[in-house]
Amino acid sequence: MKIQTRFAISPTGYLHVGNIRTALLNYLTAKKLGGKFLLRIDDTDIKRSNQIFEDEIKKDLEWLGIEWDKIEKQSLRFERYREALENLKKENRLYPCFETTNELDLKRKKLLNMGKPPVYDRSALKLTNEKIKILEREGREPHWRFLLDHQKIKWNDKILGTISVDLTSASDPVFVKEDGQFLYTIASVCDDIDFEITHVLRGSDHVTNTATQIQLLECMGSNLPIYGHHSLLTGLDGNNLSKRFGSLALRDLRLSGIEPMALASMMSSLGTSKPIQIFHTYNDIIDNFQLSSFSSTPTKFDPDLLYSISTKVLHSTPLKGVENDLREIGVPEDKFATFWEMAKDNINKREELLEIWNLCKNGPGSI
Ligand code: GLU
User: How many CA atoms lie within 13 A of 29 on its CB side?
Assistant: First the structure.
């Protein structure tokens, strides 16, 4: 079997440590199994997607040493999504809805007040053709929902084990918005089919989406990929990390001098039964990597631990790994080895090399 994984990311913000866990699991799984790793830009939301974020995402991945074999952009595939939707309409699995956002909000609140789950009541299915025509004449644009089969969906998750999701308690997902924007589920499933994705590894916040996607894949006559849902990262207090998003953006870590292999070492073992090891190459990470060793319980992320791993990575970096830095600050080649031996244990970040070199050059014990 040709292995193909993907990292699917919306270019609506900077990458943060949580995203990196997903990217790494997909990258490492592909490489471990001799497969390919696809970078998928989920930019169907034209208004919120931004080329600047896409460029930054690529820069962050490159800095981390995660190389993609192929890149795909959803905004270039609207024709394909349109075609898939037409087929679903023909099979009566897609239906037009005319409720406004306010109307839907009201319905949701009512149900919640009655202590019921806020599941869409499918009232649009009761609209007669005449009524639909009237609404259209009034200039109302429909959004389109996928008609779920109310059944239990089961799969064997590579991280969570056997999972069963009852779609009876799920709302029919919207595939296209009033303004024509394609939403995540339809785009993602078309892509997973067309790009022959064999493993879908993502956060456990996608478990219900997976059940819907399995049903859609079956409806479109496709084989199912293997699924794995990793736990979400939390802060040390157990709260969601996204609240502290800013300081944990990869861009900030990169600019603050964190060693990329420190982040890769930490994220490839955090939340597994193994202790965190220091790795200097992806080959070593791949040798030690095992998807099944990831636990399903929320994983605490400690930024201070990342800083201390980064220092350890730096201290154990062989001379070859810092030659460029030494050259840049003006250390003569014949002094590289002596200088690095002396300097390495006295720094926490590469940028501190300059200060030490200045001391060595000018100080009493200059080398
Ligand atoms: N763009 C989606 C996200 O970032 C992709 C999820 C997926 O299918 O992997 O949540």
Answer: 28
- pLDDT, tens digit, 9 for 90 and up, residues 169-215: 899 999 999 999 999 999 999 999 999 999 999 999 999 999 999 99
- Cβ-contact 309, 278 below 8 angstroms: yes
Through-space distance between the first and last CA atoms of the chain, rounded to whole angstroms: 58
Task: Check pocket membership of 42 for ligand 1, CB cut-off 6 A.
Answer: yes
Radius of gyration over every alpha carbon of the chain, rounded to an integer in angstroms:
25
Burial of 226 per CB tally in 10 Å (0-12, 13-18, 19+): middle
9 C-beta closer than 6 A to ligand 1: yes
- In the sheet that holds 226-230, the strands lie side by side as 70-73, 36-41, 4-9, 199-203, 226-230
Q: For the segment 61-115, what is each residue's pLDDT rounded down to a tens digit?
A: 999 999 999 999 999 999 999 999 999 999 999 999 999 999 999 999 999 999 9
- Beta bridge pairs of residue 16: 249
Ligand 1 centre to CA of 8 (Å) is 5
Beta bridge partners of 156: 162
